[in-house]
Amino acid sequence: MASHFFRTAFYATAAKKSINVPFAAGRTAATLAVGLSFGAQNNRTNAVTYDNMYTDRFYSGCSASAGKGLLQSPLAGYRNLQLPISRNYSSLQIQRVRHSAMAPAKNRRNLSSKDITKNMTLYTSQKADIEVDPKTLEFKKPTGNPLVLMMAWLMAKQKHLKKYAQIYTEMGFDVMVVHITPWQLLWPAKGTQVVAAETLKFLENNKSYAPIVMHGFSVGAYQLGEIMLQMSRDMDRYGSILDRFVCQIWDSAADITEVPVGVPKSIFPRNERMQVALRNYTLYHMKTFHNQATIHYMRSSQMFHSTLLKAPALFFVSDNDPIGPPSSNHAVRENWERANIKVTFKCWQKSQHAAHYIKHRDEYLEMLFQHLEACGILEAAGMLKRAKL
Length: 389
What we know:
GO terms for molecular function: serine hydrolase activity. By secondary structure, this protein is of the alpha/beta class. The protein is built from 17 helices and 10 strands.
């Protein structure tokens, strides 16, 4: 059934795009390229990703017998250790739970979500329904909260993204999650660039969202590059949007050189043979469709390295991450520091791609809160006001 779908789906795509390749290569490409649409918007919640193998255990609970991988003990026992602690910062004294998303229900704020587009989901603590103009993406009644623009990793599940969003909504932020599919990644002109335009439209028409925090994962670095490329073509129009960003966080940022590694692991996390096959197709795709795909990756990468976003940055990486390796992230760091951008860099010896928060939760949150405070964003989110109550 699956193989029949794979062949049918890609043969139709190949015919539509008039791809002329030798029979053997064409059949191989035809069988593999299907993965590009596997887990698209309507079915992405059913897809299992490379990172989700570990996050499922963390967020859904795991038994003692299943305690292999990132967690070596049952989650129930781990939750018993989650007691409120007091964090003392220079500018505020506030009682904070180590991870608000894991706090008891009585300590949580109400969290609601709304799909703004097929690729954009808003998380907010506001109880009222949010009305959005479908043409301009403008909110008819602003929430009055600062914003986190969160660029998701490839084929991320919403239930996992929600946990990251809760970190911020508990502090008074709204979180706009931007996610793309493998098909959109491989065909930028009709995929990621359309999503970038929608993201810009939202930011432009919702000026009340200020300040803004950028929090990106993995392929989100490429997506931000596409957004900045569109900004660069009309700085008079979009320059004010850049001024609203006050800090940025990058978790396992992936560059163009990691596309053939990251895409197969995201689509076939447990099947090494299919990973190898899809990796070969991805390389074939990048070589064959240079003008339709690869050149856009290169331009986005160059823009990300030179960056229009000059806000202080925090990087999370690990030595054993093949998709977002320290080497490529260090290259970005060096370029940004030459542009007088303050960069904080955290590299663990062992961790998991786009899942450092799961493996090193306390340290991850500690550095995140310190970064937000150093950028002055906590005060903007109303943390000081709530601390005095």
